[in-house]
TrEMBL record:
GO biological process terms on file: negative regulation of DNA-templated transcription
Protein name: TetR family transcriptional regulator
Source organism per UniProt: Streptomyces griseoviridis
UniProtKB keywords: DNA-binding, Transcription, Transcription regulation
Domain (HTH tetR-type) ranges: 33-93
């Protein structure tokens, strides 16, 4: 295997000499241009159309016009393919240059993360759920940790704040790409019946909030959540004397 930048790729067979891996699968139309990148892009297009559940080695091969076995020269299987899709999307993250303001920079990272996720909503969810450890996948973590360290956080505090930020942003985006409002939009007649049922349920707070629960503006929800968590992070750093509240215990034996 070799590394092209941050993406791990498999060396493509170039002949039948000693040490050259034997190509599996019968060559078919499109096989001469088959690459890992082409496979990943075809998989993203497939997910856009049919969702992640529609991905399989045969369905991807069919879209490319090749034998399914030939894909194994470039990916190890479905899990490796889904990891490659998530990594491909992460590589596309183009964060703005840091401004030196933690508040501004954290918001920019959150918005960039969301934009990349929503560019392919059904595939974008993979970057929120796949466990990746390549350099490309770890870059957002490095970017956030660098910001927090520059703001004065010690490593342990930076990690805790990082996890809080990621959990909040990831949770918000997962809700956006997979769920709708608590009370979905319905016709007037059904809305009237639902309200009558709620009013007789003995849950007055729910009755009062029902119109808001039926409305879900993704942009407003994300900005509200981002503002809440960024404000909490920056306020904590200021209150604890630039991150000095959390010590950095060493592992046992160090």
């Amino acid at each position: 295997m070799r590394h092209d930048g941050a993406v791990t790729t498999k060396t493509e067979p170039t002949g039948n000499g000693p040490g050259t891996p034997a190509r599996r699968g019968r060559p078919r139309k499109g096989a001469s241009t088959l690459t890992r990148e082409a496979i990943v892009e075809a998989t993203i297009a497939l997910i856009d159309d049919d969702g992640v559940e529609g991905v399989g080695m045969r369905t991807v091969a069919r879209r490319l016009g090749v034998d399914a076995k030939s894909l194994y020269n470039y990916v190890d299987g479905k899990d490796d393919l889904l990891d490659a899709v998530a990594e491909h999307i992460l590589i596309g993250l183009a964060f703005p240059e840091p401004t030196g303001s933690l508040d501004v920079d954290l918001r920019a990272v959150g918005r960039t993360f969301r934009a990349n996720t929503l560019a392919h909503p059904r595939a974008g969810a993979l970057i929120l759920t796949r466990q990746l450890d390549s350099a490309a996948a770890l870059y957002p973590t490095e970017r956030l940790l660098s910001m927090l360290r520059a703001a004065g956080c010690r490593p342990a505090e930076a990690v805790r704040l990082l996890r809080t930020l990621l959990a909040t942003v990831v949770g918000t985006l997962l809700r956006e790409v997979t769920a709708g409002p608590t009370f979905g939009e319905v016709g007037p007649a059904r809305e009237g019946r639902r309200r009558a049922d709620l009013e007789s349920s003995g849950m007055p707070a729910l009755v009062e909030a029902a119109p808001h629960l039926a409305r879900f503006d993704h942009d407003e929800e994300f900005e509200y959540t981002l503002d809440l968590v960024v404000t909490a992070v920056t306020t904590r750093i200021e209150r604890t004397g630039r991150g000095a509240a959390v010590t950095d215990p060493l592992p046992p034996g160090d």
